[in-house]
Amino acid sequence: MAKRTERQWVERLRERFASTAEGIALGIGDDAAILAACAQPWVVSVDASVEGVHFERRFVGLRDVGYRSFQAAASDLAAMGAEPVAALSALILPAGLPPAELDELTLGQRDASLECRCPLVGGNIARGKELSVTTTVLGSVQRPLSRAGARPGQQLWLVGRVGLAAAGLAALRLPRARAEASAFARCVQAWRRPRALLEQGRELARVATAAIDISDGLATDAQQLARASGVRLVVSRTRLLAALDPALLAGSRALRRSALRFALHGGEDYALLATGPSALRPPWAQAIGWVTSGQGVLLELGGGTVPIAGGYDHLARS
Amino acid sequence: MAKRTERQWVERLRERFASTAEGIALGIGDDAAILAACAQPWVVSVDASVEGVHFERRFVGLRDVGYRSFQAAASDLAAMGAEPVAALSALILPAGLPPAELDELTLGQRDASLECRCPLVGGNIARGKELSVTTTVLGSVQRPLSRAGARPGQQLWLVGRVGLAAAGLAALRLPRARAEASAFARCVQAWRRPRALLEQGRELARVATAAIDISDGLATDAQQLARASGVRLVVSRTRLLAALDPALLAGSRALRRSALRFALHGGEDYALLATGPSALRPPWAQAIGWVTSGQGVLLELGGGTVPIAGGYDHLARS
Q: Which of B105, B140, B175 lies at the terminal end of a domain, its last residue?
């Protein structure tokens, strides 16, 4: 396959991401993109997906890499309750990457961009030794949700599934024949094709007092929310178990691993964790615990509580 | 030196970049940053600086890496005539990077952030094999300048210096004793500490018809402007030579290389190239040529013209 120059790539991406979305005055191809003025506050975030750390090409195709890196970034908008407006993509590409692979990567980004209704309006392409996709997302919302706002007496809500993606990743690391077992299918899909819970986030912005997206595991992200709000969060083991997806239970059994552990410590499902008054809980938000005064996160076992050790650290991983 | 956890880093960065700027409702530390609504259109861009491609640690300290990566991104705002509002920084850090080095990197980002009046409001830290800094910038402007707008009969303006940074980089690649010769001092400084021409960009937005920042070299970026506007640009060799900085002439002589070649093909000074009616040329914009109908970029030699071959390609470099 012929090598394409950078200009040809920019042309191709301009066609691929041509957007007629309202609010985009100028998309890919100039020094910067131009977005129409907006009467609401803006919410902006950036997230990176790095080969060898966030994914390995031997068990994920680049279309999935493009898709999930985009959804992971959009998930930060969901956690703030924001409506997506636009995204930018900065790619670092190793010299040997075939054009067809780059094509797959951008197709995955397009899939996610369409699903999230978040047009990709610009970006950057650079050479490097290791493949990475860094996605900036911009959204807007009248009253953004932050992590600081949980108050004692409120409920702890889980929106979406937890643990499936981590179980899926564990399955993908098995020898291929085992990884393809049907018991893992939904877990693997959860890891490959996570979805930012944007609609739910927008609903939560009207009723919740704080929210965070679960990217590093429920335990770790609950710690972050507790710290930012200056409260203690108590997770009910019984309620959390009741909230687990049957596919996680089946996958964990086949892996001979603990479903609860996947649920507490597995990230990358991009579920939302929120707090709010019980009377305002939306039906699709599962009450898995409550907020008290104090600090940290406890697991309530029915008869007593134990601290949940969180502490996923991006810098510790190498 | 003790290793810091990611949370400690986020805390440190939150202190370092604590901003009281108007328009920043929430900075570093949550799922996303929040910017106040703005009555003007937004301009957004992203730029990456990758070790081994854009810099090598053997001849640049990380404080300069942080500084110049930020200015390079801000330069895209200058080219659009936009006022900076905020920036996000996504860092990919190799496992062995000492905390003191990361500290230097963020100090360089802070230097540039203060100079550009562009608060850093959020970001991401990830592990990777190779150091990179990806900077997203957001700005606003009532009437953004694009690359498309040059019309035959207008002048071609150069704002700022060209070629110095490339000569500086060539000097840095010499054996250290030679690189430190005084003939190179201003060239090396131009490469290490480029400045986005934000004020000039804002002025140009009122009088120019098109603009681009020169990151890949005058020849290459002029091609881009000509293509986007559907015109031909003619650069006068005499006028361009007259516009060159004496430090470039001295540095080129000491390197035994052509100053004109550095000026045409060296990038990373982050000068601005613009077009506009001659009557509106600001005194600090140097008229180095003109716009005609046709396509491409020509060098006028006094008696004839030759095409300038541009074509810096980020994907061809590896």
A: B140
For chain A, the distance separating the N- and C-terminal CA atoms, rounded to the nearest angstrom, is: 35
- The reply to whether B122 touches chain A by the CB within 8 Å rule is yes
Residue A246 lies in domain: 155-307
Which of A52, A128, A130, A137 lies closest to A89, judged by CA?
Answer: A137
B115: domain CATH number? Answer: 3.30.1330.10
Supply the pLDDT for residue B269. 94
- Is A77 in contact with B126 (Cβ distance < 8 A)? no
In a domain, A315, yes or no: no
Query: B147 in a domain, yes or no?
Result: no
Write the pLDDT tens digit of every residue in A129-160.
999 999 999 999 999 999 999 999 999 999 99
What CATH number does the domain containing B211 carry? 3.90.650.10
The ipTM of this complex is 0.89
**Nearest to residue A43, comparing CAs of A192, A182, A183, A205?**
A205
pLDDT number for residue B315: 55
B173, B294: one domain: yes
The pTM score is 0.91
Distance CA B76, CA A170 (A): 42
Asked if residue B154 lies in contact with residue B120, where contact means CB atoms within 8 angstroms, the answer is no
Whether A203 shows a pLDDT value over 90: the answer reads: yes
Q: Are residues A31 and A88 in the same domain?
A: yes
How much is the pLDDT for A223?
A: 95
User: A124 with A221, same domain?
Assistant: no
Chain A residues close to B129, C-beta within 8 Å: 52, 129-130
Please provide residue A80's backbone torsions phi and psi, each rounded to the nearest 5 degrees: -95, -5
- Searching chain B, which residue's CA lies closest to the CA of residue A76? B31
